[in-house]
Specification:
The protein is an all-alpha fold. The protein contains seven helices and no strands. α2 packs antiparallel against α3, α3 packs antiparallel against α4 and α3 packs antiparallel against α6. The longest helix is centred in the middle third of the chain and has 37 residues. The two termini are about 35 Å apart.
């Protein structure tokens, strides 16, 4: 793994991606319900987001096939940044339902792009590893990917709640100080956006693109064909 630089870049990107998502979702409901006072709309907003996610799967998949997985993942990260920044621009008392739906939809679209592109990109990097090091480590790589996915989402969620707690944020309080408002905006927007942009930076430097993966795949297929022919000749 330490010799597989493209995969290390990917895992570094996902570390920032997962932590940023976790921080945001750790305080998301608190923000909607406690800060904005619009918890009664959360179920409908989530339903709209779910329908949008399902409907966008085919579109993101087609874009990944045409533009490349890296491009789709980076685009998705920009969507999540726009959604997070849109959410923290809202203020209690002046926010209506549509104000929270639009940034939430942008965020959900970005999440789907990452959910489609990231595992597929892992497959490409595993192919590179099989070709480069002549060793089959697929299960180990996917196991590590799953561990990072679950682990850093949980870590990020805990971190988000800790941040607002450090600043004394109380969702039941009728009045918010400048410090508590800053804490909510930091955990919901500024910090996740910083993490998302760091993830974009690491994804950008992954050298395996669609064309290079196609070449790697052809070489692996050729090697497999030669092995089959060699086995038949031995028999």
């Amino acid at each position: 793994l330490l010799k597989n630089k493209p995969l290390l870049l990917f895992f570094s990107a996902y570390l920032f991606h997962g932590t940023g998502i976790g921080i945001l979702f750790g305080v998301f409901f608190i923000y909607i319900d406690g800060y904005l006072g619009m918890g009664e709309h959360y179920a409908l907003m989530s339903f709209i987001g779910t329908v949008l996610r399902l409907g966008s799967v085919i579109i993101w998949r087609q874009l990944a096939n045409r533009l490349g997985k890296k491009t789709v993942w980076i685009t998705g990260k920009l969507f999540t940044c726009a959604g997070a920044l849109g959410l923290i621009s809202l203020s209690p008392g002046d926010t209506v339902f549509l104000d929270i739906v639009w940034p939430y939809m942008l965020f959900q679209l970005g999440m789907v792009a990452g959910a489609i592109a990231a595992p597929s990109l892992v497959s490409d990097l595993i192919d590179y590893s099989n070709w480069k090091f002549k060793t089959e480590c697929t299960a180990s790589y996917y196991g590590l990917f799953t561990l990072i996915t679950k682990g850093f989402l949980a870590l990020g969620s805990a971190l988000g709640i800790m941040i607002v707690g450090w600043y004394g944020f109380d969702p039941a309080s009728p009045v918010y100080t400048d410090e508590t408002i800053f804490a909510v905006h930091l955990a919901l927007g500024w910090l996740p956006v910083l993490f998302f942009l760091m993830a974009v930076l690491f994804v950008w430097f992954i050298p395996i693109n669609t064309q290079r993966h196609s070449i790697i795949r052809q070489r692996l297929d050729s090697l497999a064909l030669r092995n089959i022919r060699s086995s038949k000749a031995d028999i």
